[in-house]
Amino acid sequence: MERFKALHKRREDARKLNHEQVVEEDRLSKLPKNFEAKRRRQEWELNEIEARKEADNKGEDYDRIKALNTQADIADSLEAAKRRTTNPDKGFASYEAMSMRQYERLTNNLKPNLESYEKMKEVVGDAQFYPSADTLIQGAHYPTETAMDKLAANVKEQMKTRDKYHRRRMFDPESEVNYINERNRKFNQKVERFYGKYTEDIKEDLERGTAI
């Protein structure tokens, strides 16, 4: 009887433990997918705040201490990730700022040809190549065929970029056409959003011709 009671108690403990694990798994399955990453991020931010507060109380520079305790390869990877995630385009603020961003983008892509520069300098001469207030003839510089081709290619690239991100582009021209008008296109999008994952196998069978 004592052995039977011990086995009965072990079975009850196992059943209780199994029930707790099932409840925990059900709770975790109902959480968002990024819950764990978000929780770790919040814990890291809390530890960061506490460490910064402690350094301020001691009169120390927390950023300097953190930099000294960070490995060089990790610091390089963090800096590279920060550069990748930083968006240089802050959006429209003013026409002056937009023009300045365009100017900086064009100048960053500019690759000067020093050989052509020196050749033009020899042809024109120092007096005309570096004009001053006493220079009578202005505009002695002339564009080369390569420079004009590069300008034309840059203008075409800007036009392509504007067309790609135009607000009135309502659909992807490379996508599959499965509609007869605009109303039917929106209806198909709604159907695909709600039932697409359930009909994926049927669509693949129809495309392969293996549907029953």
Rg result? 33 Å
Number of strands: 0
What is the CA–CA distance across the termini? 62 Å
Q: How much helicity do the residues have?
A: 55-70%
Element order: H for helix, E for strand = HHHHHHHHHH
Class inferred from helices and paired strands? mainly alpha
Strand composition percent:
under 5%
What is the multimeric organization of the chains shown?
single chain
Number of H/I helices: 10
As residue ranges, the low-confidence spans are: none
* Overall pLDDT: 80
What's the overall geometry?
flat
Sheet having the most strands: none
Overall description:
- This is Pre-mRNA-splicing factor SYF2.
- One of its GO terms (cellular component) is catalytic step 2 spliceosome.
- Involved in pre-mRNA splicing.
- It is found in: Nucleus.
- Its main location: nucleus.
- By secondary structure, the chain is mainly α.
- It has a domain at 1-37.
- 68% of the residues lie in helices and 0% in strands.
- The model has no long low-confidence stretch (mean pLDDT 80).
Give a quick set of tags describing it.
212 residues; mRNA splicing; 0% strand; mainly alpha; Pre-mRNA-splicing factor SYF2; mRNA processing
Could you give a quick summary of the protein structure above?
The chain is an all-alpha fold and 212 residues long.
